[in-house]
Write a structure and sequence with these properties.
mainly alpha, globular
């Protein structure tokens, strides 16, 4: 999935972080299509865990500081996404790499990102 200007929040750091996630998702999809190793998937999951910890916290602070009316909804959606990532990490640690499951995670990530950013994050533009 590619970054689009409609995803811009008006906060340069948040937009930079979002672009990083879009690029990582796209790069990992290419790796999956070429044939992925267990170590590569582990690295991608580690990236996702680190990303959600740092990005979500930063974004939530920005929404709180701007008194954005959708800040609570944002935090709830972030919590649900963190559970999804945690569940995938646990599955991988217990059962190893499942290519179809990895593709589903990327599909979910891409659709969640597009939906979440245009419904929630861009409201920082008007906050």
């Amino acid at each position: 999935m590619k970054w689009k200007e409609e995803f811009a929040t008006g906060i340069a750091e948040i937009d930079r972080q979002h672009k990083t996630l879009f690029e990582a998702s796209e790069d990992f999809r290419e790796v999956l299509e070429r044939g992925c190793s267990s170590g590569t998937y582990d690295g991608f999951l580690e990236f996702l865990v680190m990303y959600v910890e740092t990005h979500f916290g930063y974004e939530e602070e920005c929404m709180h500081a701007a008194q954005c009316p959708i800040a609570c909804t944002n935090k709830k959606e972030h919590a649900l996404f963190i559970k999804l990532v945690d569940k995938e990490v646990q599955f991988f640690q217990q059962r190893g790499l499942d290519i179809q499951r990895a593709f589903r995670l990327l599909d979910t990530l891409d659709s969640w990102l597009a939906s979440h950013i245009v419904r929630i994050d861009v409201q920082l533009r008007v906050a």
